[in-house]
């Protein structure tokens, strides 16, 4: 599990849920500390590993997290 990310409780919960599923996670050092980014190393049912990115952002004072490719 990761430590709580300040101002991003939903992003923290989502990453911890993915870690509990067995996904390996690395943090990407952000240029903007208010825009945390993580890379997820996901293994599919065929044994292939691929990456996804997940990041957080504050929009109109509300936390949002987004997936990338």
What characteristics describe this protein?
69 residues; alpha+beta; 4-stranded antiparallel β-sheet; 1 helix; 4 strands; 42% strand; elongated
Quick rundown:
By secondary structure, the chain is α+β, with helices and mostly antiparallel strands. It has one helix spanning 9-20, and strands at 24-28, 37-43, 49-59, 62-67.
Describe this structure in words.
The protein has one helix spanning 9-20, and strands spanning 24-28, 37-43, 49-59, 62-67. The chain is built from one helix and four strands, in the order αββββ. A four-stranded antiparallel β-sheet has the order 1-2-3-4, covered by helices on one side. The mean pLDDT is 86. The two termini are 23 Å apart. Strand 3 and strand 4 (62-67) form a beta hairpin. It has 69 residues and is an alpha+beta fold.
Spatial arrangement of strands, main beta sheet = 1-2-3-4
User: What would you report as the Rg, rounded to the nearest angstrom?
Assistant: 12 Å
Overall pLDDT score: 86
**pLDDT < 50 runs, ≥5 residues:** none
N- to C-terminal separation? 23 Å
Strand content: 35-45%
What's the total helix number? 1
Question: What's the total number of strands?
Answer: 4
Quickly give the structural class. alpha+beta
User: Helical residue percent?
Assistant: 10-25%
User: Which sheet architecture does the biggest sheet show?
Assistant: 4 strands, antiparallel
- The geometry reads as elongated
- The ordered H/E elements are HEEEE
